[in-house]
Amino acid sequence: MKAVGFTHYLPVDDINAFLDVTLPKPTPKGHDLCVAVKAVAVNPVDTKVRAQKDKVEEVPRVIGYDASGVVESVGPDVTLFKVGDEVYYAGDITRSGTNAEFHLVDERIVGHKPKTLSHAEAAALPLTTITAYEALFDRLNIDRDAAHKDGAHKEETILMIGAGGGVGSIAIQLAKQAGLTVLATASRSETKMWVRDLGADYIIDHSHDLVEQINKLGFPYVDHIAIFNDMRHWNSAVTLIKPQGGIVSIDDTHLPMPMEGMKTKAASLHWEFMFARSMHQTEDMIEQHKLLSYVAEQIDAGKIRSTVASIMSPISAANMREAHRLIETGKTKGKIVLSEF
Questions:
Q1: 197-214: per-residue pLDDT in tens?
Q2: Which residues, listed in sequence order, are joined to residue 311 by a DSSP beta bridge?
Q3: Is the dihedral of CA 295, 335, 133, 194 positive or negative?
Q4: Domain end point (choices 222, 250, 271)
Q5: Same-domain check for residues 210 and 111
Q6: Beta bridge partners of 102
Q7: What confidence tens digit (pLDDT) does each residue in 232-283 have?
Q8: Three-point CA angle 212, 249, 230, nearest 5°
Q9: Is residue 308 helix, strand or coil?
């Protein structure tokens, strides 16, 4: 089968950072689906895994953590899918990745592809959707249906720091569906327009003082905070979080994180890592199948849209290098997708 892989961990501008390779087609076992991959998306985690290091792979390593495709064959224990089903998913960071013609994935972390989306549009969603969903509804324990009943969090505020990227793009939509007031940070004109179009109620420029801007809007505190880029705004987040509120972050850090303000507010800090369930084979792995199915229903009902910003074709080493280069600038909005081998 065709695949895009690498043997050396090189800077993205090196022509050998990615290679077009041919590998054996995998065979599904247990709960595995073998998916004929139609489109993949690139995420910041891809660039972190590929980051330069003194290591050489004997067999080309294939990464990639977003895909949409068609079930080609199934393992003996599969019950949720059948051959021919269209699916979308984010894969497992401990296994070979999605940048290949055929890919093995546990059915419990796979969803049926939204019927109203193309494979390219669907491939933009899984990793960021799972991350955003778990951050809001599993870690911060926000009621996802608050907009449709007397939920405990209806009309509460959430500050999303780094809202213009892939995770923020879907999180804004999920939060609005849950009835929250969204304060989204963005610093460039195109990302400000992007987050506003996705439903953000207020746009905050994270290149300036967050506390001052949010206080001027009439919010002394916000009920929830989601940090979707890095932790440079940690002190502002601690100042802004409501007493007994919660902060969730998707990025680890080596920066100082003073906790005195969190303690005196009895505020909570949560970490979100969407690969945790598959990496540790948790008993509730199937929750990712359920949440992808829920979001697919929301998309097909016209309540949530794909966050794809650009599509490259084909899935090749050259296009993969370019996608990684763009991600590494830190200035992308939405998701970059590669379609068809």
A1: 999 999 999 999 999 999
A2: 337
A3: negative
A4: 271
A5: no
A6: 36
A7: 999 999 999 999 999 999 988 888 999 999 999 999 999 999 999 999 999 9
A8: 65
A9: strand
